[in-house]
Design a protein that fits this description.
The protein starts with a strand and ends in a 13-residue tail after the last helix. Helix content is 41%, strand content 16%. The strands form three sheets. Strands 1-2 form a two-stranded antiparallel ribbon. By secondary structure, it is of the alpha+beta class. The chain contains five helices and six strands; from the N terminus they run ββββαααββαα. The chain folds into two domains: 42 residues, no CATH class; 83 residues, His-Me finger endonucleases (His-Me finger endonuclease fold, 3-Layer(aba) Sandwich), CATH 3.40.1800.10.
Length: 147
């Protein structure tokens, strides 16, 4: 009978007691299924499983908010994005990446555009570029076609 020893429990077991792994010795995982499953359970311990629990943990760990404080903040904005004032389909917590201070709730679109506005090295030349063409919006540069 073909088998191998599990380095964790030290028991000799048949190969069908090991998960398949193409890169492993004899095409099997190094640890027996029982030990591998126990190890995975231990890794997952403490991680939230439901979407609601994951959201609570994300708010707490990343932003220092409770679901209640998030709801109060969002209600203070009348349930709208703090920038565009539209009801967000995908609300995002906006925070200062340097200080970690939460500033408000934004829609996804405003949240992904905000870094460009915060970055003076980008915003100032971009505004100057747009200003050059503001008076001539009806005129587009002529591009010669390659023959």
């Amino acid at each position: 009978m073909d088998g191998k020893a599990c380095p964790t429990c030290g028991e000799w077991k048949p190969l069908d007691k090991f998960h398949r792994q193409s890169s492993g010795a004899k095409g099997r995982h190094a640890y027996c299924a029982d030990c591998a499953n126990a190890r995975k359970r231990e890794e997952r311990r403490g991680k939230p499983r439901s979407p609601i629990a994951r959201r609570k943990q994300l708010l707490r760990v990343r932003y220092g908010l409770t679901p209640e404080s998030y709801d109060v903040l969002f209600a203070s904005q009348d349930g709208k994005c703090a920038i565009c004032q539209k009801v967000p389909a995908r609300p995002c917590v906006d925070h200062n990446h340097v200080t970690g201070q939460v500033r408000g709730i934004l829609c996804h679109f405003c949240n992904i555009r905000l870094p460009a506005v915060e970055d003076d090295a980008y915003r100032i030349p971009a505004s100057a570029y747009l200003d050059r063409y503001a008076a001539n919006d009806n005129q587009t540069p002529q591009i010669e076609e390659a023959a």
